[in-house]
C-alpha cells in the first residue's frame, strides 16, 4: 500500500467529493455502510458497489490504486465465507459486502485528508485516543521512509539481491528490529517536543467547511436513497425479490454513463 499516493490524492485532488464537507462525507459513508449491513440481497449489494464505481469514474479518482485496496478484504471475507456460509450464494453475499464496504472507505480516504477525518472524529473520541491517531498518521510517513532506507542499507552491505529470498527475509527482519528501536525513540522525542511547545492534553484540528453545498446535499440524498432501497428489499423481500434486477440495471447504467462522460472529457 502506497500511503503517499493516498495522501496525495486526498490533499491535492480536484473533484466534487474533495469540495464536500468532511462531516458530510463521513455521514454519507455511515449511511452507505448501514445500507450494506441491512441488505440481504446480493443484487442490491452489487448495485451499491457499481454505484460507488460510477462515482469514482465520474470524479476521475485514481481507480488503479483504489480498487486493489478495496479488494484486500475479499481474501479474509472468503475465508470466513467458506467456514460459515451455508451455500455459494451466501458466501458471495459476504464477500460482496466486504468489498463494497471497503470501496466506500477507500473512496472516503482518497478524497478527504486524514487530519480532516480526525477533526470530525475528535469530537467523539477521548483526548488521548484522538491525539494518538493524529500523531500515528504523521509517524507512518517517517517510519515508512526510514524502513526503506534501513532495508536498502542492509541489502547493500550484505550483498543481497532479489534472487535470495531467505537472505532477503533475514535482512528485512533486521530492518524491522532497527525500525522498532527507532520508533520508540521517535515517540519519546515527539512527546518531548509537544511538551516544550505547550501541549496540554489536546491537539485541536479545525474542520474545513464545505466548498460545495450542492455536493453535500447530493451525497446525503444519494446515501439516503441507497439506504431506503436496502431497507425496502430487506423488509418487503417477498414482494420485490423478482424486481432485484432494477437497482442493478440502474447502477450499471450509471457506471456506463460515467465511463462515457469520462471518455468524452479526456
Describe the structure.
The protein folds into 2 domains: 3-113 and 210-264, no CATH class; 123-196, no CATH class. Helix content is 80%, strand content 0%. The protein has helices spanning 3-12, 16-19, 22-38, 42-58, 63-84, 88-111, 114-121, 127-158, 165-196, 213-235, 237-240, 245-264. Helix 3 (22-38) packs parallel to helix 10 and helix 8 packs across helix 9.
> Which structural class is indicated by helix and strand composition?
mainly alpha
How large, in whole angstroms, is the Cα Rg? 22 Å
Helix content: over 70%
SSE order: HHHHHHHHHHHH
Terminal CA distance: 28 Å
Beta-strand portion reads under 5%
Per DSSP, the total helix count is 12
Q: What kind of sheet is the major sheet?
A: none
- How many distinct folded domains? 2
- Mean pLDDT, to the nearest integer, reads 85
Report low-confidence residues grouped into runs of 5 or more: none
Number of DSSP-assigned strands: 0
What overall geometry do the principal axes of the alpha carbons give? globular
Quick synopsis:
The chain has 266 residues and is mainly alpha-helical. 80% of the residues lie in helices and 0% in strands.
Structure characteristics:
single chain; 12 helices; 266 residues; mainly alpha; 2 domains; 80% helix
Topology:
Blueprint: H1 3-12, H2 16-19, H3 22-38, H4 42-58, H5 63-84, H6 88-111, H7 114-121, H8 127-158, H9 165-196, H10 213-235, H11 237-240, H12 245-264
